Amino acid sequence: MIKSGKIAFVFRVASFFIATAGLLDLMGVFQGNLYTGVLFYYTAQSNIFAIILFGVLAVKTFNGLRSDNKKSVCYFPRLLMICTVDVLLTFVVFWILLVPQLAGTFPLWTFSNLAVHAITPLLCLIDYILFSEPRRLKYQDVYYVTIFPLCYVIASSVLGLAGHVYGTAADGLPVRFPYFFFDFDRIGLWSIAYIAGIVIFFLIISHVFYYFSHRKSRGS
């Protein structure tokens, strides 16, 4: 790991501003608009999670630089791991499940799209790899990663069943759910299989984080 407070501070401040700029661009702020509907999507909410965490980490790192005896830049490693896995879910789901559905109809290579679906998730991962100390994770953390995504699924499902509409599909029917893989109106119970598969996948990812954290400490 890197223990330089200056490097960590610069990285975290830059990450905060890049992630914030990506989300604001996605919301149309730089074009003079404000698309608040974007905030109903997991992508935006997971990026907000990352932005808040980068901001807190930057402040903690700055305060650490002012302390002469501060030798660690590892802050909230358990929360950082959870945030990293949760926002990596955005990365994986978008590029594997959604891009095939959006090909030719969605501008993939814009700053806003790359920022929220690739750059911010990778910045979280890089921060964890560079600045986190080994043996700071607890085993229950690998399951805590499910809390945020499952709360999102439940809240979005309740909102959709209550009548919230995201738009109109090609079939002329309203779209009440934000993503096709839990669109109960169109795929029914298959949505449960999709959600279960995604949960299993990122539980595997979180176990990998835990394994390498503890394996690294044994080898050091």
Q: Quick recap of the structure?
A:
The chain is an all-alpha fold and 220 residues long.
What does this 3D model show about the protein?
This protein has 220 residues and is an all-alpha fold. The chain has one domain (5-219). The chain has helices spanning 5-26, 42-65, 77-102, 111-131, 141-144, 147-161, 184-187, 190-219; strands spanning 167-168, 174-175. Strands 1-2 form a two-stranded antiparallel ribbon. A hairpin with a 5-residue loop joins strand 1 and strand 2 (174-175). Helix 2 (42-65) packs antiparallel against helix 3 (77-102). The termini are close together. The model has no long low-confidence stretch (mean pLDDT 92).
Which residues form runs of ≥5 with pLDDT under 50?
none
**How many beta strands in the DSSP annotation?**
2
Helix content: 55-70%
Tell me about the largest β-sheet.
2 strands, antiparallel
Mean pLDDT: 92
Rounded Rg: 19 Å
Strand order of the largest sheet: 1-2
| Termini gap | 11 Å
The outline comes out as globular
Give a topology summary:
Elements (H helix, E strand, L loop, with lengths): L4 H22 L15 H24 L11 H26 L8 H21 L9 H4 L2 H15 L5 E2 L5 E2 L8 H4 L2 H30 L1
Antiparallel strand pairs: 1-2
